[in-house]
Amino acid sequence: MDVTYERTRREISTDEGVIRYHEAGEHNDDVLILLHGSGPGVNGWRNYRGNLGFFAETHHCYIIEFPGFGVSDPVDGHPVLTAGASVIRFMDALGIASAAMIGNSMGGVVGINLAIKYPDRVEKLITIGGVGPNIFSPSPSEGIRLLQEFTDAPDRDKLVRWLNSMVYDRALVTDDLIDERWAAANDPAAQKTAAMMYGSKAFEMMQQYQANADTPPYWAMMHKVKCPTLLTWGRDDRVSPPDMSMAPMRLIPEAELHVFPQCGHWVMIEAKDAFESTVRAFLAR
């Protein structure tokens, strides 16, 4: 199966701009949508390019590029909210009534919010770290602090420090990866999105808003997620430490948790084979 960048990339026009995506697999009745995370130089292809071929063997797969990350057309609004809206626009444009979803970090939060608000659209949900509140670990975590430092004043050394916090095995942070992420992080749309999510001023405003808000945070509504949910986590995640899994594991009625040893935040990359086989078994049930 040819799952190269050029052979899989697509785009579709919506009433709020063009959404770009990657598509692979011939299993039209079993749709799997992959939702990417956030951070310098991130996009859907970079998150899931190593997994697309595997999942395309059993599912019709779509990797969505969220607005504001330098690939799809940007839209106004907070990136997490615009990402969720883009998924629904995308599904409607392609006539996808419902699908299983994999969400990495921020993508997991997007998936949780979709499962709460649009339960008929999410058949099964797999999250990769990132969902839930810090229970015992400091908040912000070490990885988020490093991300804030980079966002406030980007430079290559700060990017390397952040990338090293994402993994257990630092050999994964190659010169090619650093070059790729550094180039992509300089995209103006990506910089604007990063500032809205991780800049120190934006973070302080969010903390003040949450302290005075009348509405509960998204994780307090996770009991409304009705679909079977697989929470996956790296035991050595320094961005979203494993204690964060306790709330979603307890609150989501049909949740199960799989923790991968010697693995950081990028479970789908660092524990690739074990992650793929675990997810395939969950989807096959």
UniProtKB/TrEMBL annotation:
Source organism of the structure: Gordonia sihwensis NBRC 108236
Keyword Nucleotide-binding: no
Organism lineage: Bacteria, Bacillati, Actinomycetota, Actinomycetes, Mycobacteriales
Keyword tags: Hydrolase
PANTHER family documented for this protein: HYDROLASE, PUTATIVE (AFU_ORTHOLOGUE AFUA_2G14860)-RELATED (PTHR43798:SF33), MONOACYLGLYCEROL LIPASE (PTHR43798)
Keyword set includes Hydrolase: yes
Protein name listed in UniProt: Putative hydrolase
Record-annotated AB hydrolase-1 domain positions: 31-271
GO cellular component: membrane
InterPro entries: AB_hydrolase_1, AB_hydrolase_fold, AB_hydrolase_sf
Signal peptide: none
Single GO term (MF): hydrolase activity
Domain of life: Bacteria
